[in-house]
Amino acid sequence: MTLQQIRYILGVAENASLNKASEKLFISQPALSASIHDAEGELGFPIFTRNTRGVKLTEKGEDFIKDARSLYRNYEALLEKYCGKVKKTFSVATLYYAFARKAFVEVVKKFSAEGYDFAFREMKAEDIIEDVHNQKSQLGLLYMSEANRTQILKLLE
Questions:
Q1: How far apart are the first and last CA of the chain?
Q2: What is the tens place of the pLDDT at every residue in 11-64?
């Protein structure tokens, strides 16, 4: 299995969708599917179950993802230490807010020349909290209203 395949697998796990992951990874969906299928064949077990609404990690896949994330972080740290090739990252996780997208685009315009690797993730509230907790995103945007206050406070606990 290659580091590229691991990167693809992590991308699919992060997006819970082959289509979304293929867009973010700049690879065609059929090529991404084939790469993951080859990796699963090499491992001897399925990492994902597929359905019409996306993909979901299998139990063994969840264990694999934890180890793969650790391996990939170590790989990036190695590159940074010896090659200086890892870009600074800035990632935002948010609900589906048009104002957040617009503000993010302005940040990218202002700081893109400084070599940042930007990511903008739109997801559900519980996924935003998890994303920030796991340090995938440096910033999480949630709007707390009277209607959702109890739910968000419970998630934050």
A1: 38
A2: 999 999 998 898 888 788 888 999 999 999 999 999 999 988 889 999 999 999
**Residue 114: Cβ within 10 Å count:** 9
Give the domains, in start order, of the chain with CATH numbers.
Answer: 3-81 (1.10.10.10), 87-156 (3.40.50)
- Token code pair at residue 111: 């700081």
In single-letter form, the type of residue at position 40 comes to E
Query: 54-57 and 48-51: which strand pairing?
Result: antiparallel
In angstroms, the CA 130 to CA 114 distance is 28
Pairwise CA distance, residues 119 & 130, whole Å: 16
**Placement of tokens 């590159």 in the chain:** 79
- CA–chain centroid gap for 134, Å, is 11
Kindly state the tokens that stand for 141: 């945007």
The answer to whether 137 and 131 are in contact (CB under 8 A) is: yes
DSSP secondary structure letters along 52-67: TTEEEE-HHHHHHHHH
Per-residue pLDDT of 59-90, as tens digits, reads: 999 999 999 999 998 988 888 788 776 567 78
